[in-house]
Design brief:
The chain is an alpha/beta fold and 472 residues long. It is built from 15 helices and 18 strands. It has 3 domains: 152 residues, Rossmann fold (3-Layer(aba) Sandwich), CATH 3.40.50; 73 residues, Ribosomal Protein L25, Chain P (Beta Barrel); 211 residues, 3-Layer(aba) Sandwich (Rossmann fold), CATH 3.40.50.300.
Length: 472
Amino acid sequence: MPPKKTTAKRRIFVLDTNVLMHDPTAIFRFEEHDIFIPMTVLEELDAGKKGMSEAARNVRQVSRFLDELMANATQQQIDRGLELPPAKGMIGGKKPPRGRLFFQTRRLATGLPDNLPGHGADNAILANTAALQREYPKALVTLVSKDINLRIKASIIGVHAEDYYSDRTIEDADLLYTGIEELPANFWEKASRNLESWHEGGRSFYRVRGRSVARWAPNQFVYQTGDHGIEAIVRRIEGESAVLEVVRDYRRERHGIWGIAARNREQNFALNLLLDPEIDLVTILGPAGTGKTLLTLAAGLAQTLETNRFNEIIMTRVTIPLGEDIGFLPGTEEEKMEPWMGALMDNLEVLTQSQEGGSWGRAATNDLLRNRIKIRSLNFMRGRTFLNRYIILDEAQNLTPKQMKALVTRAGPGTKLVCLGNIAQIDSPYLSETTSGLTYVVNRFHGWSHYGHITLTRGERSRLADYASETL
């Protein structure tokens, strides 16, 4: 059992089963503090190790971690607590842990209130936490659980409980990088002292200097409204100087992409990212109706069929239903995925409406597009390498950081990956705005010279959809 603490600064964290099932590296994330795992948690982990689900894989990984820690450990070492080494490849970059890992090696006096009925696993974990509080009053004993109801029950009976925060990529979703910044009104007055400008390859460039430049990131957009306004992308950051390139304007019909023109500033910025050959990864966030899928698909078709930059378009998404699951679907991989690809079909219909040749011409165009657009399932992505492909990942907010890493690492030479999603519309019951794989990618790739991000805010679907988004 944990030794008695002489100071309240040392803490003992009791881990619930769902924490380990959510993040197998959780035992390495509590820095200098001690961790206590009740026997009930080990029993639940054993029951959840079977299957091919993400939770089952995590349980098996936890078991391997525990097995490595207990290798050659004596009973006395287990009673004193196992030293926790830093985890290999741990996500989060925290300090190496110096705490100890303790297991429940004897029965603890429960002391639960009589008005708490039942003898379930949650009550057993509550009982162990309450017993540790009484046994070690000078230490702060905390129950860590992702189960909201269990934390409520703990608060009712006087047990200190917290959510698991170490998996959060960012503290608050409102702090997430947007990829765009409005320049102050006096920006050019201050920058004019050391301003340089030149033309190269038909494009206009500016080199600006100042303290505000240091917080910019490569491929971030800056703009200024007004008669002398500018819309530019940050190409390079060199200390307190930055090179800006004036963006292309795709809002005019004659500059449209596959018959689609940008309807606002943010959509124009998105098309600049999607058509830039130097950017390998693009993430686009935004609510429904902002044009994420339509712009991405139009840019993909233009680069696949017109400029032949890519061999084909691959589109995939997470298969999480909005309502009840409709059950087994017959057919091939592509046929099974078609019900999930309604957004693709809807946008393809919009993109082919402008094609000339009447119904026969549109039918021929649809056949051509189907030969160059492949629908794939995420379940079969592991181990694959995509060369010269334009990959569209829709509804990316429903992926975990681990799943997102597995997909991004599939990209081979010449491949561009576009991740679309709305972190305010997460369907997965185990993810939130701060723990989503999409948030994870935006936060981690921020600052890489071959990555671009934009957050779309203005809906362009219809006046009905816009009003519904605001009022419902």
